[in-house]
Design brief:
By secondary structure, the chain is α/β, with parallel strands linked by helices. Helices cover 45% and strands 14% of the residues. The chain has one domain: SGNH hydrolase (Rossmann fold). The chain starts with a helix and ends in a 7-residue tail after the last helix.
């Protein structure tokens, strides 16, 4: 029996060494968000869960892009710190997730920076500063908490809540316990959410585990038909979505209303911007996903998530910009989304910035700042 134990220990040691070598190689050359250089952008936060690390710097490189990322002392993506607002400055804070943070492009290419340049193009009595307050992985709940804890101190005149219709309903349900609402979740559910969040974070931080997860998903898909079928993906776009989507839409609406009320208490206005998923713009991408979802037993409706958010927010007296038409109109002339990361290309950022400027001016939001 001793030789079995020694052999088991030897196999364990070899396996551990292989895991470490594979992990190290992927982290060094894999150019993934699991890489330590990218994960160093984030720091834990007791209220929100996590946020961008103040004064962090990194370079993010993949086969599609090469971008430098700088976080200022206040913890937002900006080369400049944010102090008291000068009397001749008007500020716009853009809340959102990775589509706002936009680590795929340099800061000057983001729609936040492009919008700032467009608003200042003609000169005038005031200068405009657009603050990129997007954080990777945030949803409406985290954006509300981030505004209350951090972004409200930036003294905004206009707050733009950028909703990614593709997953923000799902994100809102997952993060609802952070709001501390009565009845939002039992202690057991909150404990379960915490454990799930930790497991997901471990998987995201390990490139080996990410590869293993994909292999497991692929294996499950090949199991015999007598096994319980997994839920079809992309529930926000499902013809008959899971009940949690309706819950997520309600939570999202309440978070946006709270942001608007908090902003109004400081004299700021609020608008909503709906950002689509890539397949809503790319017809070929949609056809592939529709077929894959059908094979999984579901039915995909291309613009369902956008339509559901529009309906959920209809009773809020807030200006609402949907950038889907602008992106769809621009798509035939070239990619507006990267193909591997499903985020905006530099050209996509230009299209969104143009749409934002037109909307802000047409709705009198610029003159009202």
């Amino acid at each position: 029996m001793a030789w079995l134990a020694r052999r088991a220990l030897l196999l364990l040691a070899i396996g551990g060494a292989q895991f470490a070598a594979f992990e190290g190689a992927l982290r060094t050359w894999g150019h993934s968000e699991a890489a330590p250089s990218f994960q160093a952008l984030f720091v834990p936060d007791a209220q929100i869960g996590y946020r961008l690390r103040p004064n962090a710097r990194t370079r993010f490189v993949t086969s599609e892009f090469d971008a430098h990322i700088a976080i200022n002392a206040q913890g937002v993506r900006d080369d400049r710190d944010i102090g008291p607002r000068p009397s001749n400055e008007r500020r716009i804070v853009v809340l959102g997730d990775s589509l706002v943070l936009s680590v795929q492009v340099d800061r000057q290419q983001t729609f936040c920076s492009l919008l700032e340049a467009r608003l200042n193009r003609d000169g005038g009595r005031y200068t405009y500063r657009v603050i990129n307050a997007g954080v990777q992985g945030y949803g409406p709940v985290e954006e509300l908490l981030f505004f209350r804890e951090i972004a409200r101190q930036f003294q905004p005149d206009l707050v733009i809540e950028a909703i990614f219709v593709g997953n923000d309903a799902e994100e809102a349900v997952a993060s609802a316990p952070r709001l501390g609402r009565a009845g939002a979740a039992t202690a057991a559910v909150m404990t379960s959410e915490t454990l799930i969040t930790r497991l997901r974070r471990i998987v995201r931080h390990s490139m080996v585990l990410q590869v293993l997860r994909l292999r497991i998903v692929s294996l499950v898909d090949r199991l015999p038909t007598w096994t319980a079928p997994p839920e079809a993906p992309l529930q926000s776009y499902a013809a008959k979505p899971a009940p949690r989507i309706a819950d997520g839409l309600r939570i999202s609406r309440d978070c946006i209303e709270s942001i608007a009320n908090d902003a109004a208490n400081t004299g700021a206005r609020t608008m909503v911007m709906l950002v689509p998923a890539r397949f809503q713009v790319d017809a070929a991408d949609y056809d592939r996903l529709k077929a894959a979802v059908a094979q999984a037993g579901g039915e995909l409706v291309r613009d369902a998530a956008t339509e559901r958010f529009n309906a959920a927010l209809a009773d809020l007296p807030l200006p609402r910009l949907d950038v889907l038409p602008a992106l769809r109109a621009a798509a035939p002339a070239g990619d507006v989304f990267f193909q591997q990361t499903v985020h905006l290309t530099p050209r996509g950022h230009e299209v969104v910035a143009d749409a934002m400027e037109r909307f802000i001016r047409e709705k009198g939001l610029a003159s009202g700042l």
